[in-house]
Amino acid sequence: MPSFGLGHVEFLLIAALWTLALSAIAFLGGGVLGFLIALARVSDSKLLRGLAGAYVQIVQGTPLLILLFLIYFGLAIVGFDQLPALIAAGAGLVIYSSGFLGEIWRGCIESVPKTQWEAAECLAMTRWQRMTRVILPQALRIATAPTVGFLVQIIKNTSLASVVGFVELSQAGKLINNSTFEPFRVFITVAIIYFIICYPLSAWSRGLERRLNVGRR
C-alpha cells in the first residue's frame, strides 16, 4: 500500500488549479449574470423586478447539490446529451453565484443614500447616467468586502462538483485517501492548500476596505 508522499502533493496541487479554474468560471459568469439581476431588481419595471426576484428566490432556495444534479443528470433524462463534468459544474456554480451576487449587489445599490439619487435627478441626469456616474461607483465601495467574501465561499463550494465527476481539490484528497488510508495527513494537506488559497483573498478584502474607506463615517 503506497504512503502519502510528494507525488500525491503534486496531484493535490494540480487539482487545486482546477478548483481555481472552476471558481473563476463561477465568479466571472455569475458576476455578469448577477449584475444584470441586480439592475433588474432596482429597475423601474415592476415586471423585471418580479422576474428577478423570483429567480433569486428559486436559486437561493435550491441547494447547490440539487442544482448540480439537475444540470448533469436531469438534462440527460429529458433527452439532451450529458454535459461534460466541467461544463455541468461550471453552469451550476454560475447559476448559484448569480443568485447570491445579484442580491448582494442589489443591497449595495439600494444602500447608497437616497440623497445621492435625488441630487442626480436634480442635475437632470438620465437613469443610466445616475447609475453609471453616481450610484454604481459608490455601491462598488460598499460591495467590495461582501463580494470577496462570497468568492471565498465559491472556492469552498467547488468541493460539491465531485458529485458530477469533476476532480477538484477535495475530491483529489478523497481519491488519495482511498489508496493510502492516511486521512489525517491527506486532509490536513488539503486544508492547508484551501487556507493558502482563501486567506489572501480575505486579507485583500480587508485591505480594500481600508483603502476605499468602507464603513467609515
Q: Tags for this entry?
A:
217 residues; mainly alpha; single chain
The tally of strands reads: 0
* Overall pLDDT score: 90
- Percent strand equals under 5%
The largest pleated sheet is described as: none
SSE sequence, one letter per element: HHHHHHHH
3D shape: flat
Using only C-alpha atoms, the radius of gyration works out to 21 Å
Protein architecture, described:
The chain contains eight helices and no strands. α1 packs antiparallel against α7. The mean pLDDT is 90.
Concise overview:
The protein has 217 residues and is mostly helical. Helix content is 80%, strand content 0%. The protein has helices at residues 6-41, 46-60, 64-77, 85-110, 114-122, 127-157, 169-180, 183-212.
Give a topology summary.
Elements lengths: L5 H36 L4 H15 L3 H14 L7 H26 L3 H9 L4 H31 L11 H12 L2 H30 L5
